Amino acid sequence: MDRLARIGAHLTGVIDREAVRKAQIVAGVRKSFELPVARLQEMQMYLLEEMLVGLEDEENAHIKMLLSFVDRKEVDTVTGSFYALDLGGTNFRVLKLTVRNGKVQHSEAKKFKIPQEHMTGTSDGLFGFIASKVATVADKKDTSNLGFTFSFPIKQTRLNSGILIKWTKGFTTRGVPGNDVVELLQQAFDRAGLSLNIVALCNDTVGTLVTEYFNDQKASMGVILGTGSNACYWEKKSNIPKYQGEGAGSDQEMAINMEWGNFDSGAVQRALPTTMFDDELDSMSPHPGQQRYEKMISGLYVCQICKRVFQYYSKHGVLPPLPAEISFTGANVTSVMLDTTPTLSEIQAFVQQEWGVSLSTSDCALIKDTCERVALRAARLAAMGIATVIAKMDRPNGCTISIDGSLYEKTPHFRHDLDVCLVELLGKEAASKVNCVLTSDGSGIGAGLIAGLAS
Questions:
Q1: DSSP assignment, residue 174?
Q2: Is 435 helix (H, G, I), strand (E, B) or coil?
Q3: 223 vs 13, higher pLDDT
Q4: d(Cα 109, Cα 93) in Å, to the nearest integer?
Q5: What angle is formed at CA 293 by the lines to CA 114 and CA 231, rounded to 5 degrees?
Q6: 12: exposed, middle or buried (Cβ count in 10 Å: 0-12, 13-18, 19+)
């Protein structure tokens, strides 16, 4: 009788077949986003395998494990003024730093939005636009060194040279893939009459790692959890078979730009527990079959997954009819999750204003539940990646993980959920030695600091 009583309590309110049908649909969607520890541990084995393949030969790897040519070294001798250009997505920033004995004394930045025409246009248009905005910050007679953060997959052959492998994050600008982005930017500077010297090219993850490393010598990994997602970490050169440069085979450490967003991508997926919503999103993206991991955990896609779940619920009568196209951004995900009013009135007002639909409190609760579950999955997937890298680095005395990005910074519960999952994967004792910190503006400041290291 106890068992029957429990079942009866669980089904309270489910009074007819239609209600049962809707409850089954919701339960199925919820289950598809669950990630038990055993599943995450299985994924770790596949991720580690792909990391090792990338360290040997990036041509045959989904995760490229790209050389950054940024070595781990002492920072207290860095002094001077340096510029940084941070191009990470639909916006870019220009920064000027003043550094003394490895400490940033002053920094200033200006932010610019890239018009859609340059995201899908030509290389001359894109880099010419960027140079025109840099000219509003830097004096044309200024001959300072500049670090360039370029947050897309690049193959570097030296610190200030990198070939774009492919565009991500919605960019399709022609004339850039297969070319040296430093040369393209330097040429644009020259045409604009700027005398800045690009001495370093880095990914935003490397910039984020270096920024925290200047403050904390235990900083060992940089992670981006924002519009996109990526990670880097310090790797011994002796563990990088494909590296044949200075210090090859030694214990000297270099930052490896993982490009982990492409984990488990390609024709056959072995690890990622994708749902029908992930598959639909991928098929309609500018680069189908690529960046499958990133498409499950980054801010650009979390909101799109939520939107597809809403539409699915609407199609099957769980939610009222919704317009064929609805707007739902990363900021909306945050706002929905922050609504704690008794009737979820803030969600109701948003839906009425933006979608032209009236929802009940229970409908709004389902909207909120969806956002929470998709964000929770993203946090646990990110924790899986971080825990795998921590295990690979083998830092018995602990380490600091430098994290930047709006998803990590602004999404409710995200940091907590990530930390909880790290405990589950690493164990309580090991996880207690891991310090995840928010490194705001790390991608930009880091490029300037790397320019300082290279000067």
A1: B
A2: strand
A3: 223
A4: 6
A5: 70
A6: exposed
DSSP string, 315-378: HTTSS----SS----HHHHHHHHH---TT-HHHHHHHHHHH-----HHHHHHHHHHHHHHHHHH
- Mean pLDDT for the chain overall: 93
Query: Residue 69 pLDDT > 90, yes or no?
Result: yes
pLDDT tens digits, one per residue of 441-454: 787 899 999 999 88
Nearest to 219 by CA among 21, 450, 438, 454: 438
Q: Give the C-alpha separation, 362 to 383, whole Å.
A: 31
The DSSP symbol for 268 reads -
Pairing status of strand 66-71 against strand 253-257: antiparallel
Residue reference for tokens 């941070």: 86
List, in sequence order, every residue forming a beta bridge with 221; answer none if it has no partner.
233, 401
Locus of tokens 């956002």: 371
Query: Token pair for residue 392?
Result: 């690979």
DSSP bridge pairs for 146: 83, 198
Q: How would you list the strands of the sheet with 103-113, edge to edge? A: 103-113, 91-100, 80-87, 145-150, 197-202
CB 434 within 8 A of CB 398: yes
What pTM, to 2 d.p., does this model score? Answer: 0.88
Contact 447, 147 (CB under 8 A): yes
**Residue 158: its H or E element:** strand 154-158
Domains of the chain, start order: 67-215+441-454 (3.30.420.40)
Q: Label residue 12 by pLDDT band (50, 70, 90).
A: low
- Give the residue numbers marked as catalytic: 93, 151, 204
